[in-house]
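Q: I'm writing up a methods section and want to include an example of the input and output format. Could you take the sequence below and give the corresponding predicted C-alpha coordinates, formatted cleanly so I can copy it straight into the document?
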Amino acid sequence: MERRSVRILIILASLIMIFVFIGWIGFMLIGVPSAQALAATINILSSVGLGSPPVESTAGWVIIGILQIGSIGIVTVAVGALSQMIIAGAMKQYMGRYRMDERINKLHDHSIVAGFSLTGEALTKDLIAESRPFVVIERDPDIITRLEEQGLLYIEGDATDEKVLKQAGIERARAIFAVLSHDSDNLMVTLSARGLNEDIIIVSRATREDYIKRFLRAGADAAMSPQEWASRRMSAAVFRPHLLELLSSILDPTVSHAYLDEVELPKDCKVVGKTLADSGIRQAAGIVILGISRHNGELVSSPGPDALIEKGDVLIGFGQQKSFTSLKNFLKT
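A: Here is the clean output for your methods example:
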Protein backbone atom coordinates (compact mmCIF):
# COMPACT_ATOMS: atom_id res chain seq x y z
CA MET A 1 0.00 0.00 0.00
CA GLU A 2 1.29 3.44 -0.91
CA ARG A 3 2.28 5.94 1.80
CA ARG A 4 -0.47 8.36 0.73
CA SER A 5 -3.15 5.68 1.20
CA VAL A 6 -1.77 4.73 4.61
CA ARG A 7 -1.74 8.40 5.63
CA ILE A 8 -5.39 8.83 4.61
CA LEU A 9 -6.44 5.74 6.56
CA ILE A 10 -4.62 7.01 9.64
CA ILE A 11 -6.35 10.40 9.36
CA LEU A 12 -9.81 8.77 9.03
CA ALA A 13 -9.16 6.46 11.99
CA SER A 14 -7.98 9.42 14.06
CA LEU A 15 -11.11 11.46 13.22
CA ILE A 16 -13.36 8.57 14.20
CA MET A 17 -11.57 8.12 17.52
CA ILE A 18 -11.71 11.86 18.24
CA PHE A 19 -15.48 12.07 17.68
CA VAL A 20 -16.10 8.87 19.64
CA PHE A 21 -14.17 10.41 22.53
CA ILE A 22 -16.06 13.72 22.24
CA GLY A 23 -19.48 12.03 22.22
CA TRP A 24 -18.65 9.54 24.96
CA ILE A 25 -17.20 12.12 27.37
CA GLY A 26 -19.84 14.71 26.44
CA PHE A 27 -22.77 12.41 27.23
CA MET A 28 -21.19 11.29 30.48
CA LEU A 29 -20.70 14.94 31.54
CA ILE A 30 -24.45 15.54 31.27
CA GLY A 31 -25.27 12.46 33.36
CA VAL A 32 -25.52 9.59 30.88
CA PRO A 33 -24.03 6.25 32.10
CA SER A 34 -20.73 5.27 30.49
CA ALA A 35 -21.96 2.24 28.49
CA GLN A 36 -25.09 4.02 27.26
CA ALA A 37 -23.03 7.09 26.30
CA LEU A 38 -20.62 4.97 24.23
CA ALA A 39 -23.46 3.05 22.53
CA ALA A 40 -25.31 6.25 21.65
CA THR A 41 -22.13 7.83 20.25
CA ILE A 42 -21.39 4.80 18.03
CA ASN A 43 -25.01 4.70 16.78
CA ILE A 44 -24.92 8.35 15.77
CA LEU A 45 -21.50 8.24 14.11
CA SER A 46 -22.26 5.05 12.19
CA SER A 47 -25.51 6.60 10.91
CA VAL A 48 -27.41 3.54 12.16
CA GLY A 49 -29.97 5.78 13.76
CA LEU A 50 -30.32 7.71 16.97
CA GLY A 51 -33.24 5.81 18.51
CA SER A 52 -34.20 7.34 21.82
CA PRO A 53 -31.97 10.31 22.77
CA PRO A 54 -29.79 9.42 25.78
CA VAL A 55 -30.96 12.60 27.52
CA GLU A 56 -33.63 15.22 26.80
CA SER A 57 -31.65 18.44 27.24
CA THR A 58 -30.21 21.27 25.19
CA ALA A 59 -26.65 20.05 25.89
CA GLY A 60 -27.60 16.54 24.73
CA TRP A 61 -28.98 17.80 21.42
CA VAL A 62 -25.86 19.93 20.91
CA ILE A 63 -23.65 16.86 21.36
CA ILE A 64 -25.89 14.93 18.96
CA GLY A 65 -25.60 17.70 16.39
CA ILE A 66 -21.80 17.76 16.70
CA LEU A 67 -21.62 13.99 16.22
CA GLN A 68 -23.94 14.09 13.19
CA ILE A 69 -21.84 16.81 11.57
CA GLY A 70 -18.73 14.77 12.35
CA SER A 71 -20.31 11.65 10.84
CA ILE A 72 -21.16 13.50 7.62
CA GLY A 73 -17.65 14.95 7.50
CA ILE A 74 -15.98 11.57 8.00
CA VAL A 75 -18.13 9.95 5.28
CA THR A 76 -17.39 12.82 2.89
CA VAL A 77 -13.64 12.58 3.50
CA ALA A 78 -13.72 8.78 3.14
CA VAL A 79 -15.67 8.87 -0.15
CA GLY A 80 -13.42 11.59 -1.54
CA ALA A 81 -10.25 9.78 -0.51
CA LEU A 82 -11.52 6.47 -1.91
CA SER A 83 -12.46 8.07 -5.21
CA GLN A 84 -9.07 9.75 -5.42
CA MET A 85 -7.30 6.45 -4.72
CA ILE A 86 -9.34 4.64 -7.39
CA ILE A 87 -8.76 7.35 -10.00
CA ALA A 88 -5.05 7.58 -9.14
CA GLY A 89 -4.70 3.79 -9.36
CA ALA A 90 -6.48 3.67 -12.71
CA MET A 91 -4.35 6.51 -14.07
CA LYS A 92 -1.18 4.85 -12.81
CA GLN A 93 -2.17 1.57 -14.47
CA TYR A 94 -3.07 3.35 -17.72
CA MET A 95 0.16 5.35 -17.80
CA GLY A 96 2.18 2.25 -16.94
CA ARG A 97 0.57 0.34 -19.81
CA TYR A 98 1.08 3.32 -22.14
CA ARG A 99 4.78 3.58 -21.29
CA MET A 100 5.19 -0.18 -21.71
CA ASP A 101 3.53 -0.09 -25.14
CA GLU A 102 5.87 2.73 -26.12
CA ARG A 103 8.89 0.65 -25.10
CA ILE A 104 7.58 -2.38 -27.01
CA ASN A 105 6.99 -0.26 -30.13
CA LYS A 106 10.64 0.82 -30.05
CA LEU A 107 11.98 -2.75 -29.92
CA HIS A 108 13.89 -4.13 -32.92
CA ASP A 109 15.60 -7.51 -33.35
CA HIS A 110 14.01 -8.61 -30.10
CA SER A 111 12.62 -11.96 -29.03
CA ILE A 112 9.01 -12.86 -28.32
CA VAL A 113 8.26 -15.46 -25.65
CA ALA A 114 4.78 -16.87 -26.28
CA GLY A 115 3.76 -18.26 -22.90
CA PHE A 116 5.27 -17.81 -19.45
CA SER A 117 5.18 -21.44 -18.40
CA LEU A 118 8.13 -23.12 -16.68
CA THR A 119 9.93 -23.24 -20.02
CA GLY A 120 9.07 -19.64 -20.83
CA GLU A 121 10.20 -18.38 -17.44
CA ALA A 122 13.53 -20.21 -17.78
CA LEU A 123 13.93 -18.68 -21.24
CA THR A 124 13.42 -15.15 -19.94
CA LYS A 125 16.09 -15.68 -17.28
CA ASP A 126 18.60 -16.63 -20.01
CA LEU A 127 17.57 -13.66 -22.16
CA ILE A 128 18.01 -11.30 -19.21
CA ALA A 129 21.42 -12.81 -18.42
CA GLU A 130 22.52 -12.14 -22.01
CA SER A 131 20.96 -8.64 -22.04
CA ARG A 132 18.74 -9.54 -24.99
CA PRO A 133 15.49 -7.55 -25.37
CA PHE A 134 12.25 -9.52 -25.29
CA VAL A 135 8.52 -9.27 -24.72
CA VAL A 136 6.27 -11.94 -23.18
CA ILE A 137 2.77 -12.80 -24.42
CA GLU A 138 0.54 -14.21 -21.69
CA ARG A 139 -3.21 -14.31 -20.95
CA ASP A 140 -3.33 -15.73 -17.40
CA PRO A 141 -4.16 -12.86 -14.97
CA ASP A 142 -2.15 -14.43 -12.14
CA ILE A 143 0.93 -14.72 -14.36
CA ILE A 144 0.39 -11.15 -15.60
CA THR A 145 0.68 -10.02 -11.98
CA ARG A 146 4.01 -11.85 -11.69
CA LEU A 147 5.27 -10.23 -14.89
CA GLU A 148 4.36 -6.80 -13.52
CA GLU A 149 6.13 -7.53 -10.24
CA GLN A 150 9.27 -8.58 -12.14
CA GLY A 151 9.11 -5.47 -14.35
CA LEU A 152 9.09 -7.47 -17.60
CA LEU A 153 7.64 -6.23 -20.88
CA TYR A 154 4.46 -8.12 -21.72
CA ILE A 155 1.36 -8.19 -23.88
CA GLU A 156 -1.81 -9.52 -22.28
CA GLY A 157 -3.59 -11.70 -24.80
CA ASP A 158 -3.69 -14.91 -26.80
CA ALA A 159 -0.43 -15.62 -28.63
CA THR A 160 -2.33 -17.52 -31.34
CA ASP A 161 -4.06 -14.25 -32.31
CA GLU A 162 -2.23 -12.41 -35.10
CA LYS A 163 -3.30 -9.03 -33.67
CA VAL A 164 -1.55 -9.87 -30.41
CA LEU A 165 1.57 -10.99 -32.28
CA LYS A 166 1.60 -7.66 -34.13
CA GLN A 167 1.30 -5.82 -30.79
CA ALA A 168 4.43 -7.67 -29.68
CA GLY A 169 6.26 -6.41 -32.79
CA ILE A 170 6.39 -9.68 -34.74
CA GLU A 171 7.37 -7.84 -37.94
CA ARG A 172 10.45 -6.35 -36.24
CA ALA A 173 11.38 -9.32 -34.07
CA ARG A 174 14.42 -11.52 -34.51
CA ALA A 175 12.97 -14.67 -32.94
CA ILE A 176 9.88 -16.11 -31.32
CA PHE A 177 9.74 -18.93 -28.79
CA ALA A 178 6.44 -20.84 -28.88
CA VAL A 179 6.29 -22.38 -25.41
CA LEU A 180 2.57 -22.60 -24.71
CA SER A 181 1.14 -25.58 -22.82
CA HIS A 182 -0.48 -27.29 -25.81
CA ASP A 183 1.20 -28.42 -29.03
CA SER A 184 -1.79 -27.30 -31.09
CA ASP A 185 -1.42 -23.74 -29.79
CA ASN A 186 2.32 -23.74 -30.48
CA LEU A 187 1.63 -25.00 -33.99
CA MET A 188 -0.81 -22.13 -34.56
CA VAL A 189 1.76 -19.62 -33.25
CA THR A 190 4.34 -21.09 -35.64
CA LEU A 191 2.03 -20.78 -38.66
CA SER A 192 0.97 -17.23 -37.76
CA ALA A 193 4.51 -16.06 -37.03
CA ARG A 194 5.87 -17.42 -40.31
CA GLY A 195 3.04 -15.76 -42.21
CA LEU A 196 3.70 -12.39 -40.57
CA ASN A 197 7.51 -12.45 -40.80
CA GLU A 198 9.30 -14.68 -43.30
CA ASP A 199 12.74 -14.01 -41.78
CA ILE A 200 11.94 -14.56 -38.12
CA ILE A 201 13.58 -17.46 -36.28
CA ILE A 202 10.92 -19.74 -34.80
CA VAL A 203 11.71 -22.20 -32.01
CA SER A 204 8.84 -24.26 -30.66
CA ARG A 205 8.27 -26.51 -27.69
CA ALA A 206 6.87 -29.95 -28.54
CA THR A 207 5.55 -32.25 -25.85
CA ARG A 208 5.51 -35.23 -28.20
CA GLU A 209 8.38 -36.49 -30.33
CA ASP A 210 6.16 -37.11 -33.38
CA TYR A 211 5.10 -33.44 -33.38
CA ILE A 212 8.60 -32.16 -34.09
CA LYS A 213 8.36 -32.91 -37.83
CA ARG A 214 4.98 -31.18 -37.95
CA PHE A 215 6.47 -28.02 -36.47
CA LEU A 216 9.32 -28.07 -38.98
CA ARG A 217 6.87 -28.50 -41.87
CA ALA A 218 4.79 -25.61 -40.47
CA GLY A 219 7.78 -23.27 -40.68
CA ALA A 220 9.62 -23.65 -37.39
CA ASP A 221 13.42 -23.45 -37.54
CA ALA A 222 13.69 -25.80 -34.58
CA ALA A 223 11.37 -27.82 -32.36
CA MET A 224 12.43 -29.39 -29.10
CA SER A 225 10.98 -31.73 -26.53
CA PRO A 226 11.72 -30.72 -22.90
CA GLN A 227 11.14 -34.32 -21.83
CA GLU A 228 13.85 -35.56 -24.18
CA TRP A 229 16.36 -32.98 -22.97
CA ALA A 230 15.50 -33.71 -19.34
CA SER A 231 15.95 -37.47 -19.82
CA ARG A 232 19.35 -36.96 -21.43
CA ARG A 233 20.49 -34.72 -18.58
CA MET A 234 19.28 -37.25 -16.01
CA SER A 235 21.17 -40.04 -17.77
CA ALA A 236 24.31 -37.90 -18.03
CA ALA A 237 24.07 -37.02 -14.33
CA VAL A 238 24.58 -40.72 -13.56
CA PHE A 239 27.02 -41.87 -16.24
CA ARG A 240 28.84 -38.63 -17.22
CA PRO A 241 28.47 -36.24 -14.25
CA HIS A 242 31.66 -34.24 -14.90
CA LEU A 243 30.84 -33.78 -18.58
CA LEU A 244 27.32 -32.66 -17.63
CA GLU A 245 28.76 -30.12 -15.19
CA LEU A 246 31.02 -28.70 -17.91
CA LEU A 247 28.24 -28.55 -20.51
CA SER A 248 25.86 -26.96 -18.01
CA SER A 249 28.45 -24.27 -17.27
CA ILE A 250 29.08 -23.63 -20.95
CA LEU A 251 25.38 -23.27 -21.77
CA ASP A 252 24.60 -21.16 -18.70
CA PRO A 253 24.71 -17.44 -19.71
CA THR A 254 25.22 -16.42 -16.07
CA VAL A 255 28.60 -18.19 -15.97
CA SER A 256 31.08 -15.70 -17.42
CA HIS A 257 34.31 -17.72 -17.17
CA ALA A 258 33.09 -20.62 -19.34
CA TYR A 259 31.07 -19.30 -22.25
CA LEU A 260 30.07 -20.79 -25.59
CA ASP A 261 28.81 -18.43 -28.29
CA GLU A 262 28.78 -17.73 -32.01
CA VAL A 263 29.76 -14.60 -33.90
CA GLU A 264 28.75 -13.83 -37.47
CA LEU A 265 31.42 -12.11 -39.56
CA PRO A 266 30.44 -8.55 -40.49
CA LYS A 267 30.55 -7.33 -44.06
CA ASP A 268 34.01 -6.53 -45.44
CA CYS A 269 35.60 -8.24 -42.43
CA LYS A 270 39.39 -8.01 -42.39
CA VAL A 271 39.90 -11.70 -41.50
CA VAL A 272 38.08 -13.02 -44.59
CA GLY A 273 40.51 -14.96 -46.77
CA LYS A 274 42.90 -15.63 -43.89
CA THR A 275 43.52 -18.81 -41.95
CA LEU A 276 42.64 -19.08 -38.29
CA ALA A 277 46.33 -18.95 -37.40
CA ASP A 278 46.89 -15.73 -39.40
CA SER A 279 43.60 -14.04 -38.43
CA GLY A 280 44.83 -12.90 -35.00
CA ILE A 281 41.56 -13.93 -33.35
CA ARG A 282 43.20 -15.98 -30.60
CA GLN A 283 45.67 -13.21 -29.76
CA ALA A 284 43.05 -10.43 -29.84
CA ALA A 285 40.27 -12.12 -27.89
CA GLY A 286 41.68 -15.30 -26.37
CA ILE A 287 38.86 -17.41 -27.82
CA VAL A 288 39.20 -21.01 -28.96
CA ILE A 289 37.33 -21.55 -32.25
CA LEU A 290 35.47 -24.86 -32.00
CA GLY A 291 33.64 -24.69 -35.30
CA ILE A 292 32.88 -22.68 -38.42
CA SER A 293 29.43 -22.58 -39.98
CA ARG A 294 29.75 -21.79 -43.69
CA HIS A 295 27.26 -19.64 -45.57
CA ASN A 296 26.24 -22.71 -47.61
CA GLY A 297 25.21 -24.62 -44.48
CA GLU A 298 28.38 -26.69 -44.10
CA LEU A 299 29.65 -27.06 -40.55
CA VAL A 300 33.39 -27.39 -39.98
CA SER A 301 33.97 -28.87 -36.53
CA SER A 302 37.30 -28.64 -34.72
CA PRO A 303 38.92 -26.53 -37.47
CA GLY A 304 42.71 -26.58 -37.56
CA PRO A 305 44.99 -23.53 -37.70
CA ASP A 306 45.02 -23.77 -41.52
CA ALA A 307 41.23 -23.55 -41.84
CA LEU A 308 40.31 -20.70 -44.19
CA ILE A 309 37.84 -18.05 -43.07
CA GLU A 310 35.29 -17.24 -45.79
CA LYS A 311 32.78 -14.47 -46.33
CA GLY A 312 29.51 -15.05 -44.46
CA ASP A 313 31.03 -17.50 -41.97
CA VAL A 314 29.80 -17.83 -38.41
CA LEU A 315 32.53 -18.56 -35.87
CA ILE A 316 31.64 -20.80 -32.94
CA GLY A 317 33.99 -20.33 -30.01
CA PHE A 318 34.69 -21.00 -26.35
CA GLY A 319 36.09 -18.50 -23.88
CA GLN A 320 35.11 -15.90 -21.32
CA GLN A 321 31.93 -13.91 -21.82
CA LYS A 322 33.79 -10.60 -22.08
CA SER A 323 36.12 -12.13 -24.69
CA PHE A 324 33.28 -12.32 -27.20
CA THR A 325 32.74 -8.57 -26.87
CA SER A 326 36.45 -8.13 -27.65
CA LEU A 327 36.09 -10.46 -30.63
CA LYS A 328 33.16 -8.52 -32.07
CA ASN A 329 35.04 -5.26 -31.72
CA PHE A 330 38.13 -6.82 -33.30
CA LEU A 331 36.16 -8.08 -36.32
CA LYS A 332 34.52 -4.67 -36.87
CA THR A 333 37.79 -2.71 -37.00
